[in-house]
Amino acid sequence: xxxxxxxxxxxxxxxxxxxxxxxxxxxxxxxxxxxxxxxxxxxxxxxxxxxxxxxxxxxxxxxxxxxxxxxxxxxxxxxxxxxxxxxxxxxxxxxxxxxxxxxxxxxxxxxxxxxxxxxxxxxxxxxxxxxxxxxxxxxxxxxxxxxxxxxxxxxxxxxxxxxxxxxx
Length: 168
Prior knowledge:
Number of strands: 8
Strand content: 15-25%
Largest sheet: 4 strands, antiparallel
Structural class: alpha+beta
Helix content: 25-40%
């Protein structure tokens, strides 16, 4: 199977068409388009669409309408944590805890926007790092935590603006 990271070496099939793929250097989850509406809106737009050959046939499909890819990255999950959080019934408790920890640590603005909980010092590595660089708590919700060209940057910017308003 072709993936955004190259030819897959291993594929783990999950219920309802979700796939975890591993390549020689990378991997992540594929979420079929029909499941995307079941994901929280802020997470649904974070994965990347990509033109690829799926199901082992020669047809090329536009995954922007069929599904999205969520990259396994730092800390063993990265964007892949968003899939585990969105579909917890498909995963073991230990996987859910690890994904939640990764999400809280590296996507803390999205975590706060989705949960309504403001993380305290010590609850998120990247938030603590940003706070150490700029100790004004209003700036916790400033600055992008992702590349501005990322498909989810508009939703993230909206969440950031809301957090800034809440912090005064």
